[in-house]
Write a structure and sequence with these properties.
Length: about 290
């Protein structure tokens, strides 16, 4: 079962290319901070703007740098089934431990289309599959019924990253899928609420910045120590919210750049933050003594 705190890790760029030296150091910090796993080339990793070759290289480097110390869940979804199949096959060869499969975006498939899409991917490799439902970006939700249908069709469907903002979905998924199906929160601000409702961890953006604290929050929840978890949640909630003051991953990359860990570089259509929002984010980082 896939549980714990996973970092949706950024893809650092420098001069138009992936900055693998910075990427290695980011992963080293994650491992040292006690994070349970990472998700390279997901939404936060700017997957839509990297080439197929870069996509596979990033996963391969993540596996290399993690060196078996943490779980690597490769983001290999897409709105083309053939693309998702290709990337998943290559991620398996690169040594990924599992794959994160986002709902196809823009083309808005029916639930039957989603079922057929994910079923085809499940036949491409033996990697465990974590589905990723984020209707605000994809325009379609992976229904509980479709999730149950997929899990019944293949043991490779092992979990869901739930990013629809609805805590009740945790209860619905648990009731339909049982105890062996992993439910991972997709929103840092809801980790406490999701885990109180029975979720098993988080795929976090904030852990790019504060990996140790996010790991501690998840561990406290897993032990049932919700009083300790609430203290961590309350302390860091302002940062959780401000990392989404603009479209992810703009703020988190800006924060890492302000902390001196990466160059602040994006690929269009992603653009740097507005100066007003950057100042707000910088003030929060200073208040938490993450920057001077």
């Amino acid at each position: 079962m896939i549980t714990g705190a996973f970092t949706a890790i950024v893809t650092p760029f420098r001069d138009g290319k992936v900055d693998y030296a910075a990427f290695r150091e980011l992963i080293r910090r994650q491992v040292a901070a006690g994070i349970d796993g990472m998700v390279p080339v997901g939404t936060t990793g700017e997957s839509p703007t990297v080439s197929y070759e870069e996509h596979i290289e990033i996963i391969g480097h993540a596996v290399e740098y993690a060196a078996g110390q943490v779980h690597v869940m490769a983001g290999t979804g897409g709105n083309s089934t053939s693309e998702a199949v290709y990337l998943t096959e290559r991620a398996a060869k690169a040594g990924a431990d599992s794959t994160l499969q986002v709902a196809p975006y823009y083309n808005k498939p029916t639930q039957e289309g989603l079922y057929q899409h994910f079923l085809q991917i499940s036949r491409a490799s033996k990697l465990p599959i974590v589905l990723y439902s984020i209707p605000s970006r994809c325009g379609v939700e992976i229904s509980v019924e479709t999730t149950h249908r997929l899990a019944a069709s293949s043991p490779r469907f092992v979990g869901m990253k739930e990013a629809g903002g609805n805590v009740d979905r945790v209860t619905q998924l648990r009731a339909a899928l049982g105890k062996r199906f992993s439910i991972l929160c997709g929103d840092d601000a809801l980790t406490l609420a999701f885990m109180a409702a029975g979720a098993h961890g988080v795929i976090s953006v904030a852990s790019n910045i504060i990996p140790r604290e996010v790991a501690q929050l998840v561990k406290a929840c897993a032990k049932g120590d919700f009083a300790a978890a609430l203290k961590i949640h309350d302390r860091w909630h302002p940062l959780f919210k401000e990392l989404f003051i603009e479209t992810n991953p703009g703020p988190v990359k800006a924060a890492l750049a302000l902390m001196g860990q990466i160059a602040e570089e994006y690929r269009l259509p992603m653009a740097p933050m507005s100066e007003k929002n950057r100042a707000t984010l910088a003030a929060t980082l200073q208040r938490f003594r993450l920057i001077k």
